[in-house]
Amino acid sequence: MKLKSVATLSALSLAALAAQATTTDLGSLGTAITTSGGVATSFGSIVNDDFTFSLGVASTVQSSVSTFLGNINPSFYGIYTAGLDHIVGTADDVQVVGHGFSSGNFDTLAAGNYYFKVFGLSNAALSAYSIAASATAVPVPEPETYAMLGAGLAAIGFVVLRRRRD
User: Fold this and answer.
1) Does residue 146 fall inside a structural domain?
2) Does a structural domain hold residue 87?
3) Structural domain of residue 29, as residue ranges?
4) How many domains does one find in the chain?
5) Is the overall model pTM greater than 0.90, yes or no?
6) Residue 32 is part of a domain; what is its CATH number?
């Protein structure tokens, strides 16, 4: 009976160790960042990792997560805000967008602090994934652009008005 309890406790301890979440700081997201994400070391291991990043200005974020060893399925990742307490992984975090493991996802985000949450289940003895992300500032039109738009609309309106009179 005691051996059965020890075996059960050992199995639970190993499962808990395999499911430990890690948090990695990617810093200020700008040019392309690629990092090897995480490794699941046994069949049935849970991948549950966070990658924090910040945006100085409103940006379009291109991101992808892909398995390069073994098999992680089901799998998904999302972009979250850290909530009002600014602590990653608490109850007030808000998911901004969610994706399955894939490539080429584009999301427009405001300036602020965010994190990628990667979650999956390993279906192989050894599985690993990588995450890639980059941010491009969203272009903001200059006031002259709006002035040119207004002048063009006024010119078209003037031409239409003259044709109606003729």
Assistant:
1) yes
2) yes
3) 20-165
4) 1
5) no
6) 2.60.120.1050
CA angle 55, 37, 117 (to 5 degrees): 55
6 in a domain, yes or no? no
Report the amino acid identity of residue 55: L
pLDDT in tens, the chain (166 residues): 455 544 443 443 444 344 446 777 777 777 677 777 778 778 888 888 898 988 888 899 989 898 888 888 888 999 999 888 888 888 889 999 999 887 689 999 998 889 999 999 988 888 888 888 888 888 777 888 888 899 999 999 999 988 888 7
Give how far Cα 62 sits from Cα of 87, 119, 126, 132, 138, Å: 24, 19, 28, 8, 12
- DSSP letters, 25-67, are EEEE--S-EEEEEEEE-STTPEEEEEEEEEESS-EEEEEEEEE
Count of residues in the chain: 166
Please report whether residue 143 resides in a domain. yes
Distance CA 140, CA 132 (A): 26
